[in-house]
Amino acid sequence: MSVQLSVQGLCKRFGGVVASDDVSFDLKSEEHLAVIGPNGAGKSTLFKMIGGQLRPDAGQIRFDGHDITKAGPRAVWRSGLGQTFQITATFSSFTVRENVQIALMSLNRQTRNLWAAAHELHRDEAQALIDAVGIGDFAERSCGVLAYGDLKRVELAIALASRPRLLMMDEPTAGMAPAERRALMDLVTKMARREGMGILFTEHDMDIVFGHADRVLVLDQGCIVAQGSPDAVRADAKVQEIYLGTGGMADERV
Amino acid sequence: MSKFLSRRRAILGIFSMSAAVCAVLAGGSMISSVSAADPIKIGELNSYGRFAAFTQPYRNGWQLAVDEINAAGGVNGRMLEVISRDDGAKPGDAVRVAEELVSREKVDVLFGTFLSNVGLAVSDYAAQNKALFLAAEPLSDAITMAKGNRYTFRMRPNTYMQTKMLVEQAKTLGVKRWAIVAPNYAYGQSAAENFKRLIKEAIPDAEIVAEQYPALGKIDAGATVSALAQAKPDGVFNVLFGGDLAKFVREGNVRGLFEKRTVLSLLTGEPEWLSLLKDEAPKGWIVTGYPVNQVEGDGHKMFADAYKAKFNDTPRLGSLLGYVMIQSIKAAVEKAGGTDTEKMVDALKGLEFDTPIGMMTMRGDDHQATMGAWIGKIDVKDGKGVMTDWAYADGKDYMFSAEEVMKTRPQ
Amino acid sequence: MDFAFFILQFLNGLASASSLFIAACGLSIIFGVTRIVNFAHGSFYMLGAYFAVTLAPRLMESINPFLGFWGGILAAAMIVGLLGVLMEMLLLRRIYHVPELFQLLATFGVVLIVQDLVVLIWGPEDILGPRAPGLKGAVNILDQRFPEYELFLVAAGPLILGAIWLLFRKTRFGVLVRAATEDREMTDALGINQKLLFTGVLFLGASLAGLAGALQIPKEPANGFMDINMIAEAFVVTVIGGMGSVPGAFLAALLIGELQAFGILLFAKSTLVLAFLAMAVVLILRPQGLLGKPAVNTEHSEFASSIPLRPWPRWLVLAWLGAIVVFACLPFVVDSFTLKLAIEVMVFALFAMSLNLLIGLGGVISFGHAAWFGVGAYAAGLLAVHSHSPMLLALAAAPLAAGVAAALVGAFIARLSGVYLAMLTLAAAQLIYAIAFQWTGLTGGDDGLVGAWPDAWAKSRVVYFYLTLALAGGAVFALRHIAYAPFGYVLRAGRDGPARAEAIGINVAAARWVAFTIAGMAAGLAGGLYTFSKGSIDPTVLSIPTSVDVLAMTLLGGVHTVLGPVFGAAALHLLQDFAMPITDHWRLILGGGIIAMVLAFPEGLVGKLRSWFMPAEETP
User: Which of A187, B138, B170, B323 could disulfide-link to B116, CB 3.0 to 4.6 Å?
Assistant: First the structure.
């Protein structure tokens, strides 16, 4: 398998705090890679640098052979990298289906269209996407009144709308009940396998991590301390120390 | 809630709101169906809310005249009825108010306004709709000159006339180095332009060594006074009034700007502005104004006594102006033999009418009345600013020349 | 320029900077804690002067000149502080939960009321106060006389800055104020009695404004224009310094004070623009002001909504068609003046709708929307008056000119957000105002342009009514259509979640820029129609009050409704027309009306109707 995402020597500081310290890793096509680490390890910073929301101080990010180190979020998205955020971000004054329709309008470069009836554009395709993530029944509901778990699914549907080759998810199941978490991740994994889509995600729930990742990468204080297969990482002494030191992996599951 | 119910209520809602808008609009028009009965209806508009200091005495003035005329049996047997409105101190609002007075109240003549731009907008409305308008206070030359029209007349001496009266005084003094301070809007700028032109005519080797144009109401008095003093002028031409004037006078007094200098100042002698300064009125300034308690003549005495009796206050210049406005309208109706607009316009051209300060003429060439102003020096007596050594400058001696009117005024 | 004069002018600048700082710092403190842009700050300032000219002379007579004067000044500041408390408790407290712009609107209602109350209580004439005992003379500085009182003012500014610094560092109240300024959510979380904090802050801010006004009395008579004259510059100082930053306000006041002291030497007519020019430059270079913190909360606009725009069902379309038909029948039932009112209502409806494209859909607040209305109005007026173009050509030029101007300005400001963006629009509007005011040769200065009447074929009121109905009505429905088109969706998406929108390829800044241009065009068309309905045009259409009027119309109509601003425009315009003929004190009625509407319909007239008539969205 070829390398899809290549991160080389990424550094980022905020004042005196080092959020990312020479982070390098590769993600192969269709690979599902989990990034774990305690709070403040630099996971979200890493995702924001890849997603284009933050510019790294040093290092390089290549996606499908293109340098996207200095690309903004829009260019990153156009290059085929979809993402969901740690803090759910949907468009609250739209219905569930419209949220996805907006992504499809953007994909089809219709954002300057002053005339068409937006409500009707890509309606069926959007419906299919929200059906696929399991919230088809809520199509006409306003996102402003939706439950948190359902919003996560809306966000997923928005991210999937552009048919990304790599999906980047920052804590996709935070705030959900355990059973719901697994169901959502099963769904995502299944869809990804079917579409040949890579996944890069962070997650606190270790059951989810070890159950759904092909490979795991561990961050602590901005550095990669371990990476490898789930089993290898689980057995890694350094990883155990980090997690035990900060309260242990077990606590994270609750 | 059933969908049907909510739908019906929503239709009801939109209809009720649209109907409310229409009803308010239509309701207003019902009031108008009063028949144009006996009285002569006069529409009046002015900035009563925003420029109350000037316009309230002015309202008292025209009220007094209306009451006196009606008590004496009216004009040609018809009573005068003034319908007065606030013009919002904005041209846009004023045009709407003028239209309301003309088309809904069916007034025979309009008069009033304070600000020049409001006066100009109403004057243009009058020309467009063939309504008669007598501008009371606006001083802009344009109303009777560059933007003059058949339907507009103006009572007060314009900035050109008043500046000319002051420059005449400067001529005898022979002061050559002049500084100008004027508020940064049309009135101030036009007064400054007039001064530059007239001082050169009067004293050919006069020069302007400094000019300051603080924003109206926002003078940075310290900086302005310093900037003027720095140019070492021998004379200062001042156009500031109201609060700006008070600030300027206080700063100038403390900093000695006015010592050993001639100061010519527009309007400062008017009670509206002078009374504010109390014992700090700038002694020795040569000003235009209205020495209300000193003006002689039976006509003025009767006017002032009647005013005091009715309002328990001394008249201001605005009071006199309001009074004169009504007198000019009375004379115009009498001469025209009615209230037909075209006949009144013709009657007003060259109309001679009596006022508390003597006969005046509404010049036919430029529709400017020959009302003058008092020129004198400021002094302080009993803790109050007064005018001394004053004389009445008759407006007819200071008007634009007939040739200039021909050249500038649209025919 | 010789050295002595330079020093003197520098001192002059310092003295006005001090006055400016004392006047503005209260505004900044109030904004920092409550996020309220308090228009009534100017009213507090004016009231301070009026109370001082009333109290000081009496106290000077009954006690002694020195104690009486300064006692009067302090008493005036305290009274005004208590009035600030009153405003907080009776008015602001009831509307903290609604978007902050409504509080701005409510304070504007207070401005109108205070203007009339001052005339009612103190009479129409200005009142000159006593001069400060012991500070009446002048000192000699390098052979030039400099007033002692000015010297006192030079010191007063830094003294008050120091006092505020001590208050903020050494008292619990001050610590809370600082905490609330830096992070409002945090103070919520700390369980501070927010009501008490806000009341205290209003007292502090208002009494500082009152003090500033009172300190003016040895220099300036108390007069009814002090509020308006001060508030614009106080805003400028607050914004340049960084909103909420007291030291920033001090720096900014220094900048403005010196700029004006020396600016008038170079260009005597620059007095109108200098401050706003400085503000524009500072905001373009440093959007958060000199010492302000960058806006933290950019994730969502305060106008984010959870109410979707549903497509109109057929019955609603029919209801609207019915309403339009009824409106179109007006010429058959009403007189010509009423038609004029109807024309103005339509013009303002379009104007308000254009602003709502920015506020309601884009979440972009503009304090200077009058600029585009005015540019359109002037474009039409200039063509009609100077080159005698046909009316339709002039009407076509109006939206074009306004669109170009809005696009140019929008290019600078679309990337900003929040109150700084709003202030930059205000600065742009003031600059355009100054051009119209000062370029007398072209625009006629403040006398304006007269004689822009409709062509012969449209001279009849009825024809112009239908022309306006067609153009303004058409534009209103085009704007409505845009709300439902992909661009409208994208604009709203950028308002609800800018980060999310960017992550699906939406260029939020570009969308706002386009919206700015479209809104400018629509406002410009409204301006063109306005010109021909009035026959004349002057700079007041470009002034701050016009921007506030249209803001009030939009907010009162309801920003989250598609056509709410239409009704807001009708309500406000008709209220004004109703109030003006019945009393000189129509501002009192208008101000009271605005406050009543803000209190009764914080979601706007149409928003209120919707919540009455439509069942609420079910919540989980």
Answer: B138
